[in-house]
Design goal:
The two termini are 54 Å apart. The chain is an all-alpha fold.
């Protein structure tokens, strides 16, 4: 090892002499640099080196390169040989690191990123070596192809990379999309046409894009992939030259994915963006060629004319709406209606232009959606909010929600909740209570949990005027035997403590302890109340009762109730009882919970 280190030091001697001669650092700083390098080199010479050794050393050298660059700026000097030496050392470390740990994809990517800045000519070689170990990842192939296109602009090399990638990953959406992008970019690349060869190359790019698309049809069955292809074709530089390709993609998508709501949504949104289907159907190959020729001859390569006719915003909205109308007729599903209504809601985010048309389309969509019996609860909520802004809105809302109850029986609880929210905002207590009672009667109490929460919040907000009604609802909620209603018992205790006395609260607690089913929240809340009410003269037996009750009812399946009881006896009760409670817990808990409890108890003793 000593001989190797000596050889390394001799190799780096020229760099150290150059640094010293430049006077950019003190002798002590230079010595520190040498010592640090030697320390990293020693780690790499060890038999049990790790990937971390390489990463740390590489980062150290990058910091050193940055330090030298900063010194150059400060001292107004130039040290190209020193920086070149550091870069070569980093490259060597990357090469050795990737050779030692070829499965570390992150190290390869870091090597490539470094090479792109310091030595672009070697990037291709690094990618090729990386593919030997990570060729099973389509993203690596994709990154390689995209870099080759950006750096070399040599389509022959780029296509070779992508053809190899597709041979390995024929159904990769990532690779196909990236290659498609490059091919249509080449078709519309902004340069002047000097000869027939250029024209042929451009045409070849479009033909390759078309062949690539046709090849993927048998391999990729994900509809979103084809919609992404169409999105690429909509970009200004490509929208003319890809018109025939767009037509073919849309025809295939409608044939193969007719029942996908997102397809109809996409086509409707295309109309809104100005890509009219009638314009597309009328386009011819000759028209595309002529427009492409014109585009090639413009200085900036931006199309002066378009196969797409210019339509006003009003007409585009109307055409968009018509597509959605056809969509919900062809696919009468809640998902399709959601796309439709969401689109109309989005349009109405900005009503500064064509506001009347947008509002009319939204109102019509809501009306159609309601009549279809397929509108979602979320959209009923939006409709209700809109209607309540009109003079007779409340009457309309009542009618619509009543009809919705008939349409959507499976979601009746949500409709009743929305109905109650309407009366809550209107502060109409009598109607609010009427709907609350009606919902419980028709659906059963267990299906109305959220309505009970809503009712309690409402009556608490108006407790001064309707305190008795709140008490009645709390009493009824506490009597329910469904486990999820247990939280209401805890709240009933808290409400009683706030509005009456500790004595009354204790009596209520004792009464509710006898009610089935057992409720852990009840005991926790009473313990909290007892702790808050505790004074020096207070008998702690009531507090112990809360913890004992929790352990009695839930001690079989819950370790926390035992730990809470133990903490109570340790801090406020009788310390001597802890061992007895510990034994009770072990004999009561389910066997699979005992080990965890013992561990927690040990920590409890350590932290006491």
């Amino acid at each position: 090892m000593a001989e190797v280190l000596k050889e390394i030091q001799e190799r780096d001697l020229g760099e150290y002499e150059a640094i010293k001669a430049s006077d950019i650092c003190t002798d002590e700083e230079l010595r520190k640099l040498m010592v640090e390098r030697e320390r990293y080199e020693v780690k790499l010479l060890q038999s049990k080196k790790s990937i971390l050794n390489y990463i740390e050393y590489i980062q150290f050298e990058k910091n050193t390169h940055k330090w030298v660059t900063e010194k150059e700026t400060q001292r107004h000097c130039s040290l190209p040989e020193v920086k070149r030496s550091i870069i070569q050392r980093i490259i060597k470390l990357y090469r050795n690191g990737t050779q030692q740990f070829p499965q570390e994809e992150r190290l390869w990517k870091s090597f490539i990123q470094f090479s792109k800045k310091s030595n672009p000519g070697q990037v291709s070689g690094v990618y090729e070596k990386m593919l030997g170990y990570h060729g099973d990842k389509d993203t690596v192939w994709c990154d390689y192809g995209l870099w080759a296109y950006e750096f070399t602009q040599q389509m022959k090399q780029v296509t070779e990379i992508f053809f190899r990638a597709l041979k390995r990953h024929p159904s990769s959406e990532v690779i196909n999309l990236a290659f498609f992008d490059i091919l249509i970019k080449e078709t519309a690349r902004i340069t002047k046409v000097n000869n027939a060869i250029d024209i042929m190359e451009r045409q070849l790019g479009l033909e390759r894009a078309l062949l690539l698309y046709r090849n993927t049809k048998t391999k990729i069955k994900n509809v979103s992939y084809y919609l992404k292809l169409l999105e690429r074709c909509e970009e200004p530089n490509y929208m003319n030259c890809t018109a025939l390709l767009q037509k073919e993609i849309i025809e295939d998508v409608m044939k193969n994915f007719f029942a996908e709501p997102m397809v109809w949504d996409f086509l409707a949104q295309r109309e809104l963006r100005g890509f009219n289907m009638i314009d597309l159907q009328e386009v011819t190959a000759q028209q595309v060629a002529e427009l492409q020729e014109q585009q090639m001859q413009t200085e900036e390569g931006i199309p002066q004319e378009s196969i797409w006719k210019s339509h006003s915003l009003k007409l585009r909205i109307e055409l968009c709406f018509k597509v959605y109308e056809k969509a919900v007729a062809a696919l009468p599903t809640e998902a399709m209606w959601s796309y439709f209504i969401n689109a109309m809601l989005d349009l109405n985010q900005d009503v500064k232009t064509e506001g009347d048309v947008k509002r009319y389309c939204l109102a019509k969509a809501f009306n159609m959606g309601h009549k279809s019996q397929l509108m979602s609860i979320v959209h009923y909520q939006a409709l209700v909010e809109m209607l309540l802004q009109s003079p007779n809105g409340l009457t309309q809302v009542e009618t619509i929600l009543q009809e919705a109850l008939e349409y959507k029986k499976s979601e009746a609880a949500k409709i009743y909740e929305l109905w109650m929210q309407v009366y809550s905002k209107a502060a109409n207590e009598s109607k609010f209570y009427e709907i609350f009672c009606r919902a419980n009667k028709e659906l059963g109490v267990t299906k109305c949990l959220q309505l009970w929460h809503l009712a309690i919040r409402f009556y608490e907000a108006y407790s001064e005027d309707h305190g008795k009604k709140l008490m009645v609802i709390l009493q009824e909620a506490a009597k329910q035997t469904h486990p999820e209603f247990g939280t209401f018992r805890a709240y009933y205790l808290e409400y009683t403590m706030r509005n009456e006395s500790l004595k009354k609260t204790r009596e209520l607690y004792d009464e509710m302890c006898q009610m089935p089913p057992p409720c852990l929240e009840l005991h926790k809340k009473m313990a909290e109340i007892e702790l808050q009410a505790k004074t020096k003269s207070t008998n702690i037996s009531r507090l112990r009762l809360c913890y004992e009750n929790a352990a009695h009812y839930f001690g079989k399946s819950n370790t926390d109730v035992w730990l809470d009881l133990l903490k109570f006896e340790r801090d406020m009760g009788d310390f001597k009882l802890m061992s007895v409670i510990y034994d009770r817990a072990k004999s009561t808990l389910d066997p699979e919970l005992v080990d965890a409890f013992v561990t927690e108890y040990s920590l409890l003793k350590v932290l006491q």
